[in-house]
Design goal:
Two copies of one chain form a homodimer. By secondary structure, chain A is of the alpha+beta class. Chain A has helices at 5-14, 19-24, 84-89, 110-119, 121-147, 150-160, 170-177, 181-196; strands spanning 30-34, 39-41, 50-55, 57-63, 69-76, 80-81, 96-99, 103-108. Chain A has a domain at 5-120: Jelly Rolls (Sandwich). In chain A, the strands form two sheets. In chain A, strands 1-8-3-6 form a four-stranded antiparallel sheet. A four-stranded antiparallel sheet of chain A has the order 2-7-4-5. The structure holds a DNA duplex.
Amino acid sequence: MLSFNNFKIYLNDKAGLTDDELMQLPYIPKSKQFKKGESLIYKGQVCKDIFFVEKGLIRQFTIDEQGKEHIIHFAPESWIVSDRSSSYFNQSGEYFIDAIEDSEVIVMDEIFINKASEISKTYRENNHRALHNHVRHLQKRINLLLSGTAETRYLEFLKLYPNLSLRVPQWMIASYLGITPESLSRVRKELTKKSFK
Amino acid sequence: MLSFNNFKIYLNDKAGLTDDELMQLPYIPKSKQFKKGESLIYKGQVCKDIFFVEKGLIRQFTIDEQGKEHIIHFAPESWIVSDRSSSYFNQSGEYFIDAIEDSEVIVMDEIFINKASEISKTYRENNHRALHNHVRHLQKRINLLLSGTAETRYLEFLKLYPNLSLRVPQWMIASYLGITPESLSRVRKELTKKSFK
DNA sequence: AGCATTTCTTACCATACATCAATGCACCGG
DNA sequence: CCGGTGCATTGATGTATGGTAAGAAATGCT
């Protein structure tokens, strides 16, 4: 197994697959490189692969009728992205996924996932747990969108992704928060003002 | 097994547990009755049970610092509610859950879930699939909150829960949509105007 | 039935955020 | 070094939604 460090850690620690079990899997991880701005998948495409982000930064987003982008979530190193409609429900995907930075992504195909679930109870359980965690996360975000002002939402974003705020251009953060770049700029201005008092 | 019709259907069809397998489970479903307005769980409580709504209508919501309620989701007949932070992560719950109508709820405890996952592959798979579907649903909602106007969101709500719009008081729908009851009232007025043209 | 309480509607004004447009700044390739 | 391109900032103005308050309608309670 090559030098995919984050992926290795993921398989051992988070997924809970022993080296023994890995050997049983008819699976050689394929990595793909994406330059900044390149797309992994487009809306409408069917794609049953699940992507593990070994290096870089990926985003999943939609484009509305007016051509505006809305970011569903960011996936930095060691995160997983996929379009569930496509990968689990055999429908065409609903989202765009592309690279914010030059990235290296490891492709986990359907066979790998299924086989791993079959042979390892730990993998299954951890996978299940991760999904629950994801749900929790999404619920929190919904709550924030329902209750927070632009400022609160921005502050929460900073708490949640402390290291991302410098890697992601501001207009994307705005798109994640559901406000315009101009508004975010003004929010930031207010915040620096406040912090001087 | 008493007369929990919806629950029975759920177990057989959606969960995929055969009668045989059910017999193996050391489980007698307990049902609980809740009057309109009664709480199933409060924020801060630890509760490892998962609730199946046999009859009635349940809501999961938060209350922010200003005392405003924000509805995370509605659970009518045959839906499942739980607070995942609590049930899967041993933390105190983050949400309130109460009954919108007089309801009958069936309690699936930890033991049941674990045991069922253990003995039935179908149960596991369906459960997993349902979770993915839930994620998909939440993502869609986030997208809607990011991109839609009050009117679009309301129309989407009507599409998603066609039978709920009459059962749920308007101020709760507003709270689900992230707007005030007054705004929803205005939106509805505009819509009836439009439909006359 | 009759009174009280809650929910819905409407009107008027306030505000947060969007939109549009101009400018400044940094990065990049030639 | 220069002009181009994309991003962030700022100001002026617009608009959707919020807040408040009052009355109408619906619902619940005894």
